[in-house]
């Protein structure tokens, strides 16, 4: 396992602009900085730590669980920087709270999807580990999120995600193949998070709300999609926070 780089003294890291002591062992990472604020609203309290480029960071507690919320931006290079710097500062358990395109016809927009593993259709993760290595979420993190969704009776899906680089390129043959193989949702960061988790020895998982679905015959307007996505997002935020609480009770960060 490759260790994260060690820090020098009170070093402030270049991108997330945090230093030792700023980051909790439990980290929730949305892509969108605006989502950070919507997550933090549900915490007991949270302090603004730093804002630089696409990275906005708050640290606080949820039901006594020490949690940092840090946005990671869009795509592999941006998110890998956030994950690496957070790990250097002591992050141990990650949940990505994201958006994604539904890839099964029966997934309505606004559905929470727990990504249990991810197809590595992007470039960044291959710099860390060869393409044959599976991008898999930590079982305890995944199980905690599924338990929260089951307990609340929220309709959800769980399964393999499709992680990719080029948002505006659609390979229809690959899309059809992956849907046939049961892939649930397409997004751009879960595989990188899971591979960095394996490489650096931290626990990772992801829950996304679908904001679209390429297979729907009647495509909603962007405004209708946003309303449905936000309904799903409220479930993903609650799922991540409650899962972190469960994991903290289990001592998931003690390794
Ligand atoms: O909403 P976030 O978390 O950014 O996730 C998804 O949205 C972005 C693309 O619109 C990509 O980052 C993709 O992974
Ligand atoms: O990558 C992504 C993210 C959100 N929605 C999509 O359709 N694709």
Automatic annotation (TrEMBL):
Gene Ontology BP annotations: nucleoside metabolic process
Domain Nucleoside phosphorylase intervals: 26-234
Enzyme Commission numbers on file: 2.4.2.3
Transmembrane segments: none
Cellular component annotations (GO), alphabetically ordered: cytosol
GO molecular function annotation: uridine phosphorylase activity
Catalytic activity: uridine + phosphate = alpha-D-ribose 1-phosphate + uracil
Identification of the protein by name: Uridine phosphorylase
């Amino acid at each position: 396992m490759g260790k994260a780089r060690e820090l020098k003294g009170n070093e402030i890291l270049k991108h997330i602009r945090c230093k030792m002591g700023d980051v909790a062992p439990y980290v929730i990472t949305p892509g969108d900085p605006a989502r950070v604020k919507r997550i933090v609203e549900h915490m007991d309290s949270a302090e603004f730590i730093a804002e630089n480029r696409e990275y906005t960071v708050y640290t606080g507690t949820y039901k006594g669980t020490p949690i940092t919320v840090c946005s990671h931006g869009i795509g592999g290079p941006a998110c890998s920087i956030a994950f690496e710097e957070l790990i250097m500062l002591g992050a141990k358990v990650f949940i990505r709270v994201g958006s994604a395109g539904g890839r099964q016809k029966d997934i309505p927009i606004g559905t929470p999807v727990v990504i249990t593993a991810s197809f590595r259709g992007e470039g960044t993760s291959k710099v860390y580990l060869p393409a044959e290595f599976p991008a898999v979420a930590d079982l305890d993190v995944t199980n905690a999120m599924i338990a929260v969704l089951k307990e609340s009776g929220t309709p959800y899906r769980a399964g393999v995600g499709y992680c990719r680089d080029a948002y505006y390129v659609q390979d229809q043959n690959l899309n059809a193949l992956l849907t046939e193989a049961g892939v649930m949702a397409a997004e751009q960061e879960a595989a990188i998070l899971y591979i960095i988790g394996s490489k650096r020895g931290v626990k990772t998982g992801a829950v996304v709300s679908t904001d679209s679905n390429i297979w729907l015959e009647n495509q909603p307007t962007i405004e209708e999609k946003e309303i449905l996505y936000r309904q799903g997002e409220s479930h993903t935020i609650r799922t991540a926070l409650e899962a972190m609480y469960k994991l903290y009770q289990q001592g998931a960060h003690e390794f």
